[in-house]
Amino acid sequence: xxxxxxxxxTKLFKDGLRHVANADVQRFLCRNCGFxxxxxxxxxxxxxxxxxxxxxxxxxxxxAKNLASATIEKVAGETETRQDTKGKLVxxxxxxEKDNYAKxxxxxxSKALERLFERGCNLQDSETVKEAxxxxxxxxxxxxxxxxxxxxxxxxxxLTWKPPICNVTRSLPFIPTERELDDLIAGTxxxxxxxxxxxxxxxxxSGECSRLRWANVDLERRMITLNDTEKSGVPxxxxxxTKLVSMLAIMPKTTEYVFGTCCKVTRASVFYRxxxxxxxxxxxxxxxxxxxxxxxxxxxxDLYHQTKNPLLVKEFLGHRNLDTTxxxxxLEKHLYKEENDTFNVKAVRNxxxxxxxxxxxxxxxxxxDGLTFLRKRK
Length: 378
Fold this sequence. Notes:
Structural class: alpha+beta
Number of helices: 14
Helix content: 40-55%
CATH architecture of the domain at 178-335: Orthogonal Bundle
Radius of gyration: 30 Å
CATH superfamily of the domain at 178-335: Intergrase catalytic core
CATH class of the domain at 178-335: Mainly Alpha
Strand order of the largest sheet: 1-2-3
Shape: elongated
């Protein structure tokens, strides 16, 4: 096995064959630095195509001979191009890992480029990629993901292109009632119900909840700390209910993770199967619209309705941009438009009386005649 001429490493991937004259030269890809090179000492004679063989040579015209030769050269050229593209895809993944992209982003982008490659696109020709995108039967959002992945691919290899326009519009999420969420939680098993209750109270993303560790759960203080966030989210701390504490207390502690080492895809498929069964059993087709991320949308909308404070909702969800949180203001206005806003009002005279009220959710309104008025939504 040769060594990498760039860094000297001996851990290499075999990266196909390079077709030179009447021989194939083995190509390698360095697992350490991603450098791709050929090794002339690893040469193989072409045995699958015998260019000297002729059938009925007396009937074969000169033009037919030229056509056969051109076909062989074309097949060899296409094979070399596909092998070269495979190597560049591996380089692309290595570079994303070096640039410290999230594992989910690397998996999504590489899968998007593989889809283009499987459709016969030449990734070195942006026009063929545009043509393939125009014929794809998928959402505009996924086309935008493919476009972003290909743009980064070209950037890593020192190329540019003019990306097509993707008209991505953000649709409003489905917000179920709390009763429907509770029906789902009550109709699942011990582990799944605990997982769903955690999503409901904390509004974590499903991946964040799946990676929750026992070291970040404080049952005595009824508190969960989230440090391993997704989408560059802000770390945060949640106060949990006694119901969730009791559900977590009976969970098995066989691994360092609260909900085991089951992958996110498997856990989601289990949830979808139970959801379908419950929707049929309870006669409520609306349950089929509830996904794991729906718990996050419901909690954000309900929290804004309780507090009318978008900054508090932004911090609770871990958003870095307030514009992302403003969606729940629009949802709250339409979902709760028929309800009358009623409050409990308290009037206090000194700071000793204000403190306990603020701790239970009262908020400052105004001061008048030496009194401080506080209110809390019923």
